[in-house]
Write a structure and sequence with these properties.
CATH architecture: Alpha-Beta Barrel
Distance between the termini: 15 Å
Radius of gyration: 17 Å
Structural class: alpha/beta
CATH class: Alpha Beta
Number of strands: 8
Strand content: 15-25%
CATH topology: TIM Barrel
Helix content: 40-55%
Mean pLDDT: 96
CATH superfamily: Metal-dependent hydrolases
Shape: globular
Number of domains: 1
Low-confidence stretches: none
Length: 260
């Protein structure tokens, strides 16, 4: 199978000591492409640098809602320039997170809107982070969406109505290792059974959200483990994993406007 981990954070320092082994394992498991996603200026820069190290590695730049309190117009102009790099395939991870509130709501909304505008100017797909925004993220999207922007809802964790809204807008849905978890993944396993196959992408969010069975032996997630997400997805949907992997590969390339 040829796999594309559409969302990971390989710039995290947790990989510093064994990054070459991480590379070997992802190759061994058929991961031929991945997108390293920035959350602020520093991590976005590191993501781009890492994307240069391997064929099939790509990067996304942006300011995560947790980091909105530290954002500025200067930061966004820096990232706008960085987005000209040929390995940058998306703008993100951006959105709203009203759960942990690491940044004030006002700041989150201000910089989310501004980043949507820049993504439009740059004609880049967006990577969305949403948690407990009570429909506000969708309101902003509907206010500013111009009908041509590609995007993915990273680590979807919403309800059926929100899922329908995202699909109606035209977004892809990112499925993580949560799908493999007995209790936490119950609702997600119900949703993916009827999710249009041409809107599905798979992701690890590594080093977070380690799937089963890997979760039983390590806390740290890595791109190689996206294979477990694919296999569980095929099992839940009662589809052939080889055929499903080919469809999801094409979806991922379409999302990021990549030809491989």
């Amino acid at each position: 199978m040829k796999l594309f981990d559409t969302h990971c954070h390989l710039d995290d320092s947790i990989y510093d000591k064994d990054i070459e082994d991480v590379f070997k394992r992802l190759i061994h498991n058929g991961v031929e492409a991945l997108t390293i996603v920035g959350i602020d200026q520093k991590s976005s820069t590191q993501a781009v640098l890492l994307s240069e190290s391997r064929s099939g590695f790509y990067a996304a730049v942006g300011v995560h809602p947790h980091e909105a309190k530290n954002c500025s117009e200067e930061t966004l102009q820096y990232l706008r320039g960085l987005s000209n790099h040929p390995k940058v395939c998306a703008w993100g991870e951006i959105g709203l997170d009203f759960n942990r509130m690491y940044s004030p709501r006002k700041e989150q909304e201000k910089w989310f809107k501004r980043q949507l505008d820049i993504a439009d100017e740059r004609n880049l797909p967006i990577i969305l982070h949403e948690r407990d925004s009570k429909g506000r993220l969708l309101e902003i999207l509907n206010e500013r969406y111009k009908g041509q922007r590609q995007g993915v809802v990273h680590c979807f964790s919403g309800n059926a109505k929100e899922l329908d809204n995202y699909l109606n807008i035209g977004f892809f849905i990112g499925i993580t290792g949560i799908l493999t978890l007995k209790d936490r993944g119950t609702d997600l396993r119900k949703f993916v059974q009827t999710l249009p196959v041409d809107r599905i992408v798979i992701e690890t969010d590594a080093p977070y959200l380690t799937p089963a069975p890997e979760k039983n032996r390590t806390k740290r997630n890595e791109p190689a483990f996206v294979k477990s997400v694919l296999l569980k997805l095929a099992d839940v949907r009662k589809e052939d994993p080889e055929i499903l992997s080919k469809i999801i590969w094409k979806n991922s390339c379409r999302l990021y406007n990549i030809e491989i």
